[in-house]
Amino acid sequence: MTEILGPIKSFTAFIDLTEGAQIEELRKLLIENGLIEANEEEDEEKEPLERLISVINLMRNVFEKQDKTIQELESILLSIASLLHIVPKESSAKLLSDLCSTALAGTTPSNARQRLRLLDLLFYQFDVKSRMASVVFWHKLKMSVQYGLGSQLVIDIDKLKKWMVNWSFSIDEKQRAYKLVWELYKTTDKKSISCRALTELVSTYDSDNEENISTLVTELVVMAISDPDRYIFSDLLDIEAVKLQYSEKIYQLLEVFSSGMYGSFLKFCDANPGYLDQLGLEYEHCKHKIQVLTLLSLAEGESEIPFASCLTELQIDIDSFEQLVIDAIRYKLLSARIDHVNEKVIITNCVRRTFGLNEWNLIHDSLLSWKNNISHFRSNLKSFQLLPVGDQKT
Amino acid sequence: MRCPTLQSNIEISSMEDNVHSIEVYLHPVAAFAIIDSHERRSKDNQTRVIGSLLGTKTPDGVYEISSAYPVPHSESEEEVAIDMKYEQSMYQLYKTINPTDVVLGWYATNSTIKMHSVLIHDYYSKRDPPPVYLTFDCKMRSGRLDIKAYVRCSLGVETKGYIFSPIPIKMAYYDPERAAVNLLRQSISTDTNETPIKTGLERFENVLGSLEDSIDGLLAYVEKVKSGDIPADSKIGRLLMELVSKVPKLDPNQFDKIMNNTTQDLLMIVYLTNLTKTQLELGEQVAHIPSN
């Protein structure tokens, strides 16, 4: 058997054939399927590279036919991939891209998951930092969007960010990638990834270089507000592209959710009747969310808050208020106890809606007192004298 | 009655069997056993050591390798032979102490995948689950111990060949393992490559010291943010806020009182254990004195 070492270090294949013979076997398969004439003489003249290119392109028809098992397709695909090392470096990415298209030929909604696995298999053959991996990644992403495979393909945005640096993607490529990720998860249960991708997408625009940026920002705000797990909005206000929309209604709405109280929400709704419906936001959902947020604002920096002031601020009755406090605790935004006898809520900790210098000072003070406590205790500890007991030889 | 979801169920189960969804977690104990086996090889004729990997496998393809043992083998240019009998009896012995563990694959202590690897992989493929192949670059060619994991896929149309496809591998730690690894790391910076194991109170003191250092680091960061040297990242801020909110807010006196009380208890335990130890040693010494 000959050992083949591909252009990429991790690619090690073992097959008892020379490269030429390996291509011949692939061609034989094509001949069996009636895709090329068995005209030996003519073929002998051709360079192996040329023949490989024609194999990649013609193999498309074999993949379209659907008469092979997934294992057979896998073997064919890997066989071609292991030959890619004979391709000169400058055209290898192009050929790999063709190979991906071949692997996806004849994809139907019912076999889309299997085809995605084929691409996954190819993806793992390359060093994830290499440009080759990015070629496969594009195909994976595009086909997942096309066939709605959001539940199959898991994308970690932080990882993707690092990869894109390695792949030296241009701004345009990054935007396209984020757009695809956003679309991919939009209708799945992984909405938070979709929202994250959209946030990253919007962050890539810095000035008025994009006409549809206001649509994107609107989409982002709506998505963030309708995300049931999201309660912090102040970070969105830091994005340059969002700041540019400061005169728009959507910006005002975002401000209400990032730092406004229930009262300002009602005022906004009165001033802009029908606006929430127009955005596709549910009034009840928004109301509940802003009430929870208002509760957080009331609790901020306090150790206890009386029922009375909360009830007036939130304009609800005592039963709904209790439910609201329970919800806030359930969402891990608040740690508190309800004191029924004295009609107040005792706060031990709450999440901050906005995060500014004030909060940093608070962290600083807490850290400092923590450190002082420990160093004080350490110095005390040193004063303890252990009686010399036991074997001290070691 | 036909169940419409049956088709998709079958597909899921076949995906679980798929080797590409395997994730490997390696415990330091296994890693040390492998490196140790490499160090103990006969240096004249052996360039690499191979052996079996043991651990557990979950239904969704997570391999957790918690132990390993070397298997004698000999290889030349033409052939490779492994001591199957030894391998099987080792496995049987291992199985008696850890009944839930199975052989998850094998390792080799070099980084290049050779033709022989295919043959050895064949041997391990006879068992369930599909084996993984770990390579340890014990020569540290890249300057660090490179650990890679592979599964085997087949390729080719008529003549079948194989390819080792890389899969993700991560280190996994239990708490005691973590503590041991941290202790071992400390020996890197010493001249003798040794670290003494600290006893109760010293260790406590050390931990407190490192905690104080960490807090110092955080304080320095926060101060830089406040002075504007580092742009404020509200994400980090929120995490820090969560951290400090977990520390109980106590005034120094209260804190001292609580800590002193627990320290008294701790000291008592340390004292008593030392006393017991001395007592036992004394007993042993007395037993050795000839009786006349």
UniProtKB/TrEMBL annotation, chain A:
Gene Ontology MF terms: translation initiation factor activity
UniProt KW keywords: Cytoplasm, Initiation factor, Protein biosynthesis
Domain annotation PCI: ranges: 193-352
Function: Component of the eukaryotic translation initiation factor 3 (eIF-3) complex, which is involved in protein synthesis of a specialized repertoire of mRNAs and, together with other initiation factors, stimulates binding of mRNA and methionyl-tRNAi to the 40S ribosome. The eIF-3 complex specifically targets and initiates translation of a subset of mRNAs involved in cell proliferation.
One GO term of the biological process aspect: formation of cytoplasmic translation initiation complex
InterPro entries tied to this protein: COPS7/eIF3m, eIF3m, PCI_dom
Protein name per its UniProtKB record: Eukaryotic translation initiation factor 3 subunit M
Any one of the GO CC terms: eukaryotic 48S preinitiation complex
Record family assignment: Belongs to the eIF-3 subunit M family. Belongs to the CSN7/EIF3M family. CSN7 subfamily.
Record's subunit section: Component of the eukaryotic translation initiation factor 3 (eIF-3) complex.
Top-level taxon of the source organism: Eukaryota
UniProtKB/TrEMBL annotation, chain B:
Localization, UniProt: Cytoplasm
Any Pfam family the entry gives: MitMem_reg
Name of the protein this chain belongs to: Eukaryotic translation initiation factor 3 subunit F
Transmembrane intervals: none
Quaternary state and interactors: Component of the eukaryotic translation initiation factor 3 (eIF-3) complex.
The species this protein was found in: Amphimedon queenslandica (Sponge)
Top-rank taxon: Eukaryota
GO terms, biological process: formation of cytoplasmic translation initiation complex
The keyword Ion transport is assigned to this record: no
UniProt keyword Cell membrane present: no
Gene Ontology molecular-function annotations: metallopeptidase activity; translation initiation factor activity; translation initiation factor binding
